[in-house]
Amino acid sequence: MDDSKTTETSQVSALPDGTMQLVLNTVPVRVRHADAWVPVNEKLTRESGMIVPTATPVLVQFSAGGSGTMAQVRTTTGAWVTESWPYGDLPAPTLSGATATYASVLPGVDLKLTAVVTGMSEVLVVKDATAAADPRIADLTIAIGGASVATTNGGTVVASAPDGSSLTSSSPTWWDSSRAGAGASGPAPGDSAMPVTHAVAANKMALKTQAIVGDTGVTYPLFIDPDWTGGIYNRWFTDRGYPNTSFPNPATRLKLGYASAAISTDNVTHLARTYWQVDTSGVEGKHVLAAHFNTTESYSSSCTPMGVELWWIGTTPAGSTWNNTSSAWISNMDTETVAYGRSGCPANAVGFNALQAVQAAAAANASLLTLGMKATAENDDRSYKEFSPSASLTIAYNTAPSTPFSPQMTSPQRSCGTSANPSYVNNSSQSLTLQVTITDSDGGAQVGAGFYLVHGDTLANISYFGTSSKASGSTFTDQIAANTLPPGLYAWQAIAGDGTDYSPGRSAYCYFQVLNGPVTPPTITTVTPATTVGAPLTVRFSDPSQHIVSYAYWWAYGSPSSTPPVAPVSTSGVGAANAVPCVGAPGVESWVCPDASGTSPLVTVAPVDTTSTLWVVGYDAAGNVSVARSVAVNAIGDTANVDYRAGHGWIFEVQPSPLPSIIADSNSIHEQDLSIDAGIDGTQTDTVNGIPSTPVLSFPGSGTSPGQVATAASAVDTTKSFTASAWVKPVGGGGAAQSRTIMSQSGGVNPGFTLEEVSGNILRFCVHSQIGTAAADCATATSTLPEGQWVFVAGIWDAINRQLRLLINEQIAPFAVGGHTVPAGDVSASGALVVGSATISGAVANQWNGLIDDPTIFPGVLDKFQLNNLYNQSAPQ
């Protein structure tokens, strides 16, 4: 049961076969109370000085006696329309079920107010001729408050509230007790209520009953009935005997068939037809599978079965009269030959097939459907029948599942390509997984997918695969086994089904090109040869076969190996439509794409050591990779920059112990001495790399010492290549979350670089731009820095290769690598070089916890020989 779609008159539920059922009632059968649906219950109770029904969709309240206010009915917007009794205070009523009886409101006259599903009925019971002779009955005027009153062409009275909402009253009628079965609820079965002459003004309705009460042929008691409903015309009948009178929303009976004047109590020949209007918005655009209209025949003029026809009616004004509906009958959908509702043939349900009309309404997205019933023999007294106003239309329907959406290839990851721009895959060594998503608005529906694989150039079918069913909203996959498809252009699409209907369309074709390799290895041409480690050289890559769409290149230390290495490249994005990388983020590898001839633009790189190898691989559009090709590059060390004439070093083992407050720079040309603030301990010594009694700096790693060890000015340009190093011995770090800085160079807000230990005793080397708000780029180790041991650490910023390298001890191959690109307009951090802490937003931060020896910094990239010299606590040259 889908409670979200439940209303007072409709309810949706799922059927066992996966289709849906909508039940539409012609009168409300439930009402919302305290966030729950409860059955309609018209039984009257006393509440807050009024008489009210227990649970009805149209709220009414009756007088509890003692005032002239007779009844109030609330409109759909909450406005109240009030009726007042014109002849003084009403007596306290007697309650019986849904009816409140006010005895002797006039001599010999009772007033009965009854709560009905759609509002109320009110009946004056005139008990005898003496009561009828009272002039107050002959010209009875009921005051209407809270609304203005007018009459329609069909005689219906409409009370309109100031906010535009309204109530309706059918044309007032009367009947007498000349036949058994007549009572306050209506005429005897088979009899007709007769119109009462009436007049309305802005705030009152006057009943002109002189002719009725003066009729000596009347059998008492006599009943006069003006009623009010909540303004919803969803059932009515018309009568040729009263061709301009409307009979909307009768509380007890709807009429059809022929009754000659000879058998009618009013001596009028009647021919009646019945109408229902139902809200079909719930099946707009649906596939209607079945539709049955069910009602109850409560009276038949004969037990001889006679034909009753259910018709599809065209556009018809609700509550219309005989004269403006007789030409709107479109199609007879079903005929039932029945006779129920008298002695010998008791009342019984009657069902009709309404499929034709409901299918038409659904196809036209019509929100309202009118059904009509009439007798087959409309000139036969035996055809006269009465039906209960409470009927239902039960519709079985199905909603087609959605067209499959979000098509993609999930393994390997590829987007949905077009014929002009397909995605590319290798099928020789991997299977291909296709995926779509499908939804179905029918609650609980099970859906499945069918995948079509076709040739991309002709769209000729290759294969079809149908999945098992799953819940709406699921993803569905088809797998093409490895080594199934030879090279070529292919396409696929999917259709959805739910066991009853297919989706209105298929997903768009997704095109893919199969390239199974191999890829011709690229050629490397050196354009400008290298001479120095860290200095630029230019190369160009080329592919005569013109199959390569992207080159990935990287440096390795030493001479080329005899076996080409596997590219240290993540290829997850290669092969997705429009996703082949041409300029990847810097790091271990870099990317460049060729022109139409297969030739790359000039690529600028720099040797990373005195003997290093530049490797390159080529990728085709499917992500197939070539064998790596290399060029060996021999270069000299950067003796101009990795030297104390350009760089700076503070060698503690040549200093006295304790360390002086000013430590001289090894650079005597551009000297930058280190100043040791009070609170930094320079009294300790330790054995460093086998050298005993070496004076060292000791940092407490806490905020108790705000002092620093720093130069007076900057040491390097942080936008250009440099190398920073030191011997360090962490103690008591314990994996604290706080960063602990070995060396940094202060900037405007953040340092230009930091060589530091972070949470978990992890070493990292970072460079931070001095413009914008981007985070620092780092090379971060994957293992911990051991506590209580001396370790030589170095950070290299290689600006030409856009690479950060973290070195440990005397190993030139980096322990960790990261990438960094200097933003346009960036400037160097211009503050002091700081040892043992950092300056962030002008404040001392992230102090080292442990010992530091021999900090150095050079404006260049060191080679393995220079690294070895620094490791052994010698000058780099």
Helix-strand blueprint:
Blueprint: E1 10-14, E2 20-25, E3 30-33, E4 36-39, E5 41-47, E6 50-55, E7 60-63, E8 69-74, E9 80-84, E10 94-96, E11 99-106, E12 109-116, E13 119-126, H1 129-132, H2 135-138, E14 139-145, E15 148-151, E16 157-160, E17 166-169, E18 173-175, E19 194-195, E20 197-201, E21 204-208, H3 210-213, E22 222-225, E23 227-229, E24 235-239, E25 247-248, E26 254-259, E27 270-279, E28 287-300, E29 306-313, E30 329-338, E31 348-353, H4 355-363, E32 368-375, E33 385-387, E34 392-398, E35 405-411, E36 413-414, E37 423-425, E38 432-437, E39 446-455, E40 461-466, E41 470-471, E42 475-480, E43 488-497, E44 510-514, E45 523-528, E46 537-542, E47 550-557, E48 590-592, E49 603-605, E50 611-619, E51 629-634, E52 648-649, E53 662-663, E54 674-676, E55 685-688, E56 691-695, E57 697-700, E58 709-710, E59 722-730, E60 740-745, E61 753-758, E62 762-767, E63 777-784, E64 791-798, E65 803-808, E66 816-819, E67 833-835, E68 838-840, E69 843-845, E70 849-858, H5 864-871
Parallel strand pairs: 37-44
Antiparallel strand pairs: 1-2, 2-34, 3-4, 5-6, 6-7, 7-8, 8-9, 9-14, 10-11, 11-12, 12-13, 13-22, 13-23, 14-21, 15-16, 16-17, 18-19, 18-22, 20-21, 24-25, 24-27, 26-27, 26-33, 27-32, 28-31, 28-33, 28-34, 29-30, 29-32, 35-36, 35-38, 38-42, 39-40, 39-41, 39-43, 43-44, 45-46, 46-49, 47-48, 47-50, ...
List its salient traits.
single chain, 877 residues, mainly beta, 13-stranded antiparallel beta sheet, 8-stranded antiparallel beta sheet, 3% helix, elongated
